[in-house]
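Please, structure for the following, as tokens.
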Amino acid sequence: MKKVSVAGYPRIGKNRELKKWTEEYFKGEITKSELLENAAGLKKGHWLTQLNRGVNLIPSNDFSFYDTFLDTAFMLNAVPERYRKLGLDGLDTYFAMAKGYQGEKGDVRALPMKKWFNTNYHYIVPEIDDATAFRVNSEKPFDEYKAALSAGIRTKPVLIGPFTFLRLSDIRCKDKTLDMLADRLVSVYQELLKRFDALHVEFVQLDEPGLVADLTEADIGLFQSIYGRLLKGRGALKILLQTYFGDVRDIYPQLTALGFDALGLDFVEGPENERLLEEHGFPKDTLLFAGVVDGRNIWLNDYSKTLALLRRLARAVDPERLVLGTSCSLLHVPYTVGNETRIDGKVLGRLAFAEEKLSELNELSALFDDADFEKNEKFIANGGRVRAISGDEFVYEDVRRTIAGLKADDFTRKPAFCERRKIQKEALGLPLLPTTTIGSFPQTPDIRSLRSKYKSGKMERADYEEAIKAKIGEAVRLQEELGLDVLAHGEFERNDMVEYFGERLSGFLFTQNGWVQSYGTRCVKPPILFGDVKRLRPMTVETSVFAQSLTKKPVKGMLTGPVTILNWSFVREDLPQRDIALQLALAVREEALDLERAGIRIIQIDEAALREKLPLRKRDWRGAYLDWAIPAFRLVHSGLKPGTQVHTHMCYSEFSDIIRDIDGMDADVITFEAAKSDLSILRALRENGFRTEVGPGVYDIHSPRVPGVGEIKDILRKILRDMDAEKVWVNPDCGLKTRGTEETVLSLKNMVTAASELRDEIGKAIS
């Protein structure tokens, strides 16, 4: 049998245990030693699960309390001085970098957070300046290897590679060049490798997903320089260079010439890698870790297709040097189908979560060595399960006809933006620098309890709806008391911004425990998009109308956009994404029109995940994604009246290079996450003549710290240096769902005060 490797494994626990323990530690409900002890047991359980499912090359150091990229920064001593000055111990300094700190030892904001390539996972962006002194600052990778070894498991330690680490870090050096930083970083990695060699580690996995994006000649030269040094003097230690999320077309010849012991290539999202092997060959003395089991989707592997791929690969690579693996870390899928009891058995048989993917690898390994595999009962059973569900019962011909009949005018809102803006200014009568929130308010334990009681049948629907209305009433009164200009109903009835809508549309299925990590302790449960999408009934009108009835100020109708629903769902692999996006757009459009008819004057259509499925290489952008993603959003609002103001929200991605496409969405107001990225988007907005009104987030909602009035005013002044005050909105950088009530009230109060004071200053300056 071929060896089997896993690039990384989920870490939150089968029942989100790590989330629970970490949040209890933050609240002081468990001690540090209890947190560490619990985590040690969790890690051991994950290693044993992989061992028992036939994995030969089990990863260690893929565990993290918050984020592996942050772990890497901490390990390399890339800890900015402001966090060191707090005088906290190692773990608490680490958490201060992740989520900020506000207490008796100081007041610091968290490091920025961005999307991890084209996934819904978020990584913490390290900060490197002239004071950064790289050195080995953590025993974590060695301790985890030794802990696994003591349990009888020899793992392959996993590290973020130095090239990707530098490429994704925020480098603020004035006196050090990139080459100088790389030189110092290589010295630290050399020390790490020597220490692993001394522990008799067989393989170290260095993750370099940065290689699957656009690379310049300078990038390629930097990579060659780094690894030309790193690969020398590594002793008996073997280096696996692991890539994922795409292909390595820009650097394949140089990559294969460097002399790695093993190369990990993704053949799921990087089919171009197969062509590279066929045309350029593969080094005879190098192992190929072939990523053939999808680490990002939940569908059963089709053994017939995968075995055909492996046969083709075996023509370019000695079969004895072929290792079967996952396309990327299994971090991006739920733990196990075994946790699900409510999904129809036939559908359940089509699903494979992390544990099931381990079994798939093991079975594929055995089948690959079986000359008569087509008669093997496991191969036959797999084929039956793959063909069991066609999804025909989820087909709506009327929806398909509507999509087929769409014309250019269906994607164009009239009149043009400038005319609409004048109409809306007069109709809404909002002040300069209008204040608002992104939508959701804290989901407190009592709200979660209400929803749980209702779902479990312990609470009547009428009682539940009255309780939710009471919460909406409290939120509206609070916003009026705080002085916000545009209100939200709080979204207390919503479990998740995608799942809530999926539950009210056709074509979706839902797991009980299909949790995946989004960032830190934040986990999401993506729905399964299984068939044609159709709106069956109004989804948000009742709550929005009720909230609006409580105030004379405008209350936003809150919708999730079609692209975000698509991107944050597990979509059946054979469904055309463009068509499903347009079906979703039709459904959300119907809801938007109903909101407008019910008297809602502002409608927010969130597209937080717009960038996620954008190809990593710019040359692949057109046709593959943007040419249907932007029109899908426009279809939602094209039928609205000119006086209805359309908002959208985007977060935690790099938007500067698609800013013209975002302007082309033809929204009236766009709010961005910006607080954690030091408002870096402002320059792109100015340089591209961004016409849409904009609300760059003025404080970070992923941290419990409360920003002061002066801090927010400074941020607003920075915004106003680049933006016309007539086009600026004031808002947090994302929804408030994960925050506590007290910190939310204080933060919003300071935000409103800052906007009011600055508004007065501008008024005095004009007069």
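The mean pLDDT is 93. The first strand starts at residue 4 and ends at 5.
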